[in-house]
Design goal:
The chain is built from eleven helices and twelve strands. It is an alpha/beta fold and 242 residues long. The structure holds ligand LARABZUK. It is found in: Cytoplasm.
Length: 242
């Protein structure tokens, strides 16, 4: 039986609040209140995963480390933690939350030797976020160019990276649908599982992503669509359950 698509509802934290951004751009925030309440809402709705992002740490405008640790610690589900994890101290703090895995972004572009080391040391606990405009990677909270997607993917594959979280920044927070072509291309370029992120707007988008599971898409992060109540998480889980 084909594996079902995993769903990862997102809680992005900025200034202590759960927010959504458009194209990941600082200053486009819509606030949705308490991150803990949001996370508990997704957990109560049956989520198996939470995608938890410290946006301040990603942008270099401070951090929400204690709050993120509180949210991660309150969860019974699996947590993928992202945002500003770039060195031994931030990685240790992230892993100490008890999260299931962390998502490295900027570090994979700027300190590849360190990333190779932590992949070798932590294996499945490390995913790399490939955040792209076209086929150009972006780091530092998606504000700086960081090289070619496929060259970086080949390097990370050779270093044993366990999985990738692939975001088309042009789609993120826009409710315009995921970039299925990009996901197909990435899946064709790697045998590692891919988590799709950005742009999900409808249950049909989720069904389309579920159709890519045989190609290597393992999961889908869903943010804005849940906060905008385009559908409920229960409906989303049902839509990808078969
Ligand atoms: O994940 C990061 O490190 C990050 C850094 C800078 C800006 C945004 C960042 N993440 C955003 C997300 O992970 C979104 O929650 C996710 O792509 C959901 O997108 P959508 O469903 O389109 O709201």
């Amino acid at each position: 039986m084909a594996q079902k698509l995993e769903l990862l509802p997102a809680v992005d934290v900025r200034g202590g609040r759960a927010v959504r951004l458009v194209h990941g751009e600082s200053g486009t925030e819509t606030s949705y209140g308490s991150p803990l309440e949001a996370a508990l809402t997704w957990q109560r709705a049956g989520a198996e995963w939470l995608h938890l992002v410290d946006l301040d740490a990603a942008f270099g405008t401070g951090d929400n480390r204690e709050l993120v640790a509180e949210v991660a610690g309150a969860m019974d589900l699996k947590v993928e933690l992202s945002g500003g994890i770039r060195d031994d101290a931030s990685l240790a703090a992230a892993l100490a939350t008890g999260c299931t895995r962390v998502n490295l972004g900027t570090a994979a572009l700027e300190t590849p030797e360190w990333v190779a080391e932590v992949i070798a040391e932590h294996g499945e606990k490390i995913a790399v976020g490939l955040d792209v405009r076209g086929t150009t990677l972006r780091g530092r909270g998606w504000t700086r160019d960081g090289g070619d997607l496929y060259e970086t993917l080949a390097r990370l594959d050779s270093e044993g990276c366990a999985r990738y979280v692939v975001t088309d920044i042009a789609k993120d927070g826009t409710l315009q649908g995921p970039n299925l072509g990009l996901l197909r291309d990435v899946c064709a370029a790697t045998d590692r599982p891919v988590v799709a992120s950005g742009g999900v707007s409808s249950l049909d988008d989720l069904r389309a992503l579920a159709g890519l599971v045989p190609l290597g898409v393992e999961g889908a992060i869903v943010g804005k669509a849940l906060y905008a109540e385009a559908f409920t998480l229960e409906e989303a889980l049902e839509a990808v359950s078969r």
